[in-house]
Amino acid sequence: MMEAKMFCYQCQETMKGTGCILKGVCGKESHTAKAMDLLMFVVRGISVVTDEFRNAGHSVAAEVNRFVVDALFCTITNANFDDESILNRVDKGMALRNRLIEEAKEKGISLPEIDELQWQGGRDEYAAKAESVGVLRESDTDLRSLKELMTYGLKGMAAYLEHAMRLGYDDASIHTFMQHALAATATKSLPAGEWVKMVLQTGEYGVKTMALLDKANTERYGNPEMTKVNIGVGKRPGILISGHDLKDMEELLKQTEGTGVDVYTHSEMLPAHYYPAFKKYSHFVGNYGNAWWKQREEFTTFNGPILFTTNCIVPPLANAEYKERMFTTNSTGYPGCKYIQADAEGRKDFSEIIEIAKQCQPPTEIERGEIIGGFAHNQVLQLADKVVDAVKSGAIRRFVVMAGCDGRMKGRDYYTEFAKALPKDTVILTAGCAKYRYNKLPLGDINGIPRVLDAGQCNDSYSLAVIAMKLKEVFELNDINELPIVYNIAWYEQKAVIVLLALLSLGVKKIHLGPTLPAFLSPNVAKVLVDTFQIDTISDVEDDLKMFQLS
Prior knowledge:
Its EC number is 1.7.99.1. By secondary structure, the protein is α/β, with parallel strands linked by helices. It contains 18 helices and 16 strands.
């Protein structure tokens, strides 16, 4: 175990707004954080070699690309709390790195003499090494801020890329950029201005990655469509599926068909209900509960097993009975929970989860009714004439983008109050679990257009960008910032970071980010973002409504 002091400030809840040093607010232990630091060290080393491979005109094996993506994904907030799972990746990465180094020698490729390539410690030395390779390895505060901002964007990008890859969609240029950027953090001595350029380039590749995932999801499962989703329960036992991976969603629905077991979504899996391909399953009952951070109480009342397909795990309390029913897969992990491994063809066997479900009581009802969603870009563009007419007539005065993440901080009540206080001639565009702050409010509609248009998961923030660009074209505007759209976005972790960078790369300005600005933005870096993009943070509802000219 790695018991040494940690330093982590990659999520919004980081301790005192500066950094977690004893234990993560997310529940991550210091030794787990250190294991992740060491894994990132190994990934940087691999990326240095692969960057040199490509510079010399040589290809990089798909196995390497998959490893880097998985390693980045498993280090994002709330994804993996299992030390052994992470350290096994370190072992694998060290072996992979050394193999690549040998291949470089055979090909006559010279490599830089850096610690990421030269260190050869074993398991008994991991803990000591982790002390020197974490976030604080960069002493310059501003360079550290820029490097970490880019790295967190890459982690978010990896999460979205992994989902696309699981559906058979990939793009070599994205891997090339990701590994080049990671290599730069280990080898390049660049002025701050050059790092800023790389950060914005990360946003450009974020757009590319989210477009790839959008293509993968829609070509496989159809375009999301306007859908009413049941939030009540049925009378049969159920399995609750959380996270973001639609491939797992598909396999679970297929394997539970005809078993007498129902399937429910939780948190970010809610948008699975919007895809036509999943609507044929009569045992796909609805959505249970709210955003990820309420899972301790909601998993208790659900009564059946829970499958985590991606991040958003909240460590169960010590006496939590549902821990025995928790399963993880893909890049996730939690000590004591069964891990579902894919076979050589990428298929998974969920039979154990199904058998446990059969022995459980049906879910306890915690609410009833329906919520509406499915307003990704294809669906909204089908409504384009109605939307344009509503804008031209003045029925819709403003669109308010309130996409992003939810979280535990009490200050996030702001988003519920802000939504309630919005004038009735405004429409909320949302994606991600931030929607749970207002998607069950009775906000009504405007000429048949719901006042909350939910595009889907956090990666479906891409849809909101597509909608904005289409509206810019329809209204014959020169600048996306001339649209009647304001941005009041909540963030929590690294997938939100890549969404933010993607929007900045598209030229979107005046984004308000809350409930706090990231701790990893140094004052100077924050000033660059403010001066260049007019980024700001939230204050209080009344003042922000005036500032947005919505009061």
